[in-house]
Structures are given as C-alpha cells and as structure tokens.
Description:
Residues 77-86 and 110-132 have low confidence and may be disordered. The chain is built from 10 helices and 13 strands. The protein folds into 3 domains: 7-76 and 83-91, no CATH class; 129-177, no CATH class; 183-370, Rossmann fold (3-Layer(aba) Sandwich). The protein is an alpha/beta fold. Helix content is 39%, strand content 18%. It has helices at 16-30, 35-49, 58-67, 93-108, 148-159, 202-219, 254-266, 302-317, 331-344, 356-370; strands at residues 71-75, 87-91, 124-125, 129-136, 172-177, 183-189, 224-230, 234-237, 273-279, 285-287, 293-295, 322-326, 347-350. Helix 1 packs across helix 4 (93-108) and helix 6 runs parallel beside helix 10 (356-370). InterPro entries: VWF_A (IPR002035), vWFA_dom_sf (IPR036465). Residues 184-282 form the VWFA domain.
Amino acid sequence: xxxxxxxxxxxxxxxxxxxxxxxxxxxxxxxxxxxxxxxxxxxxxxxxxxxxxxxxxxxxxxxxxxxxxxxxxxxxxxxxxxxxxxxxxxxxxxxxxxxxxxxxxxxxxxxxxxxxxxxxxxxxxxxxxxxxxxxxxxxxxxxxxxxxxxxxxxxxxxxxxxxxxxxxxxxxxxxxxxxxxxxxxxxxxxxxxxxxxxxxxxxxxxxxxxxxxxxxxxxxxxxxxxxxxxxxxxxxxxxxxxxxxxxxxxxxxxxxxxxxxxxxxxxxxxxxxxxxxxxxxxxxxxxxxxxxxxxxxxxxxxxxxxxxxxxxxxxxxxxxxxxxxxxxxxxxxxxxxxxxxxxxxxxxxxxxxxxxxxxxxxxxxxxxxxxxx
Length: 373
C-alpha cells in the first residue's frame, strides 16, 4: 500500500485509541495533512492487524479524536447555486504539536545527552551550569534536572500525607544557564525527484524537520530555526506548515535556497550560524537576472554546478558552515556533493533515508559545541 510496516505501532500496554493515534500521526505526514486519505489507509491497516474491537470501532476513534481536540469539522464554502461542497475533517494545532512530539521521541528519544561546552551566556533554560532558580518541569527536560526534594515537597502540599502521590504538576527542575546560542536554517529539497522511482524521500525529511524543531523548542529555546524549501524557487515556511508539505513538479534550484538561507542568517545577531540541507543532491535550475529560468535535468550542468560552488564559498567567507545530508546513492551526485562540501570547508553525510535523524541530531549537538564564541 505505502511501503511502510506499522507493526511497531501496535505494541502492548496501549489502549486501542493510543495504537490508532500513533499510526494516524504517521499517516498524516505521508498524506501531507489529508485526513480522509489517512483514515482510509488506517482502515486498511486495521483490517490487516485487527486493532479495533467490537467495543471500540473506527467510528469511536474518529469521535474521540474530535472530542479530544485533534480533529475539527471543516465546512466548504457554498457554491454559486446555494449548495455546498460538503464537509470534511482537518487536523488541529493540537495534532500538529502531537506530531512534533512523536517525531522527537522516535528520532531523538534514544540518543544520550551530549557533553557540556565551556562558555556560559546570560540566557537561562536547559543548559549546563546550575543556578538556584526553580521552574516547572517541561517535556524535553532531562530527568537529572529534576529537583527531587522540592518536587516531593510539592506533592505533600498538593495531595497531603494520607493520599500521597506524585504527578507531573508537582515536578520542578533546577534552572540552568545556556552555553551558546545557535541560529540554524534547515533547507528541504521539494523537487520532483524527491519522490521518483517509488522512493518517498520527502516524508522522512519532514519528520526530521519536525523533530529538530521540537528539540530546539524544548532543549535549546534560545536557539533559532528557520525552515525553507527549494524547488524552482525558494521560500520560507512556518513550522505549522511542515505536516502539509508536498513535493511539487519542480526542478532543484539549490542556489536560490542558499541565497535565502544567507539572507535569513544575516539578520541574526548571534555569531553562531549554520545551514542544514536535506537533498537528493542534483541542482538542475537557476533563476536568471532577466526573470527566466535556466533548467537542465540531464546530468550535472557545469553552469549550474559552478553557481552552487560559488554560493558554498560565499557561505564559507561568512563563516556559515553548510552540512549536507545526501539522501540519494548515485555516485556522480555524491561526487558533486563532495565538491560542494570542499568549497564550503564543511561536511556531508551520505545517509540514504535510514539514520537521517541520528546524523542531524549529532551534527547539531557537535556544531553547538564547536561554534561557541
């Protein structure tokens, strides 16, 4: 059906709703936010794995999604003859947050905390030097930050000694100082080649972007992340748009993506800046000064390649490293990425799709430590 095995989402110790919801969040990414299509696929998966029961049907699941605020009814604008196009379902901001949290847990959940840096700043959050300040526990805080004595004291005050239990609301953590601030631009290739030959490259890229965004929001809230996409042109998208992102009938204008990334980073006040680029590696388009497009889908065009190498060198002069995550295996494309990386004096990971999130996490952590000023 979609080439994905979902048996891992039907684990034990989960309610039927939780099992279905885990799969539903995955399908929403694959369908770019199309709820009806996601539910159709979920029905097929349910037929194969028997997730629902006589007591809890798919209709019950949909109603619970609505009741918990994960789905809302959308009424289409009436037609000119007074009739409407019907109604449909769409996901809510609560679902978007749940998808980001799920992506964070799947991709980064098993990776250990990295080593500490050496330079402090005035900013507070989840850092490395402890202070005497306390705050409520937030998702993403490490367990070793929890101030146990104060948390137990809160539980006694809130529940009393006769009915003692500790809840999430009782937990407090010791505030830390951040050691650096990093500004990152994540470039995502949305050219048509990202779905060619039956390989879905865009969904893993979206999931990694969601996980990276959630990681930064929860662990490094003073860091910044801007997300841009590039096809024939390049434009910035908001975090909330990521689940709905689709590949278009585009060529790959890597130069336009780099130009926009450089413009965004020039506006950042901090000194630590970087670009992450997820691509299948083949630039095939330029937007010329006269407004026309120069395109060549056959092989590597020397004119386009040289423009890309010039932009990589320009980023190097601005002290902006570009880490390229190459998700195609073609040797001649990897050769181009190697030249591109040499021009920027940075690095590239020829990851394929497997392990893409691990590579990005480790490089983000390493760059934060290495780029502290």
